Amino acid sequence: MSALSRCSVLILAGGRGQRMGGRDKGLILWRDRPLIAHLHDVVRPWTDDLIISCNRNPAQYAAYADQRVSDAETDFPGPLAGVLAGLAVAQCPWVAVLACDTPRIDRALLDELLALAVSADGAAMVRQSGFWQPMFSVVPRSSLGMLQQAWNEGERSLHKALGRGVLVAVECAEGDGRLENFNSPEHYV
Q1: Residue 186, Cα to own-chain centre: how many angstroms?
Q2: Is the N end or the C end of the chain the one with fewer CB atoms within 10 Å?
Q3: What is the extent of the structural domain holding 177?
Q4: Is 46 exposed, middle or buried (0-12, 13-18, 19+ CB in 10 A)?
Q5: What is the bridge-based pairing of β-strands 123-128 and 131-140?
Q6: Residues 6+ apart with CB under 8 A from 161
Q7: CB neighbours of 14 closer than 8 A, spacing ≥ 6?
Q8: Helix (H, G, I), strand (E, B) or coil at 23
Q9: Which residues contact residue 3 at a Cβ distance below 8 angstroms, ignoring those fewer than 6 apart?
Q10: Interval 150-161: pLDDT, tens
Q11: Number of domains present in the structure of the chain
Q12: Quick check: 128 and 42 in contact, CB under 8 A?
């Protein structure tokens, strides 16, 4: 089995969208298409198990996913909750975790994250200028138990929870456009 076929993709689109006036970020139009469509274009050829964590509008996300999940709690508890839900249904031993507001991600970065995770037998995450970027990660599905335990102990940070196990970095330069988050309305003009 090739490395590409062994990786599920989990796109996190389950947030409140507070910086966007409560709008569902994955469905906001950019270049005349929803943000989720741009990510779908990149990851669809890369996986046969595309999971979207969405706490709202599941019908609108259906066209972009093989599976849809939502957080176990209804109060938008954060990305780790979406990762737990996604890992629980993932069909592959590795799961790429991406945010729905990162339409410039490319397959080269995904390939690099996956290769590093497999070689380290642990999680791989982007680090940029010394700062970890948990929304650009490849996580072993087998880490579900460790992450669930961290959650049960009150941890809500994906980075800190993954740090309980093997965590290695893919270093990216400052200003790497592939990592740009569309977190404010001016991105969508």
Answers
A1: 23
A2: C
A3: 4-188
A4: middle
A5: antiparallel
A6: 80, 146, 147, 150, 151, 155
A7: 53, 54, 55, 56, 70, 71, 76, 81, 82
A8: coil
A9: 111, 114, 115, 118
A10: 999 999 999 999
A11: 1
A12: no
Question: Could you give the CA distance from residue 177 to residue 187 in angstroms, rounded to a whole number?
Answer: 13
Dihedral sign (CA 167, 119, 44, 181): positive
Token pair of 127, please?
Answer: 């680090």
**CB-CB neighbours of 157 under 10 Å:** 14
Task: Output the domain CATH number for residue 106.
Answer: 3.90.550.10
Q: For the whole model, what pTM was predicted?
A: 0.89
**Hey, what amino acid is at 14?**
G
CB 96 within 8 A of CB 142: no
DSSP letter at 166 equals -
CA angle centred on 157, ends 117 and 134, rounded to 5°? 40
pLDDT digits (tens, 9 = 90+) for 86-101: 999 999 999 999 999 9
Residue 44 is classified by DSSP as G
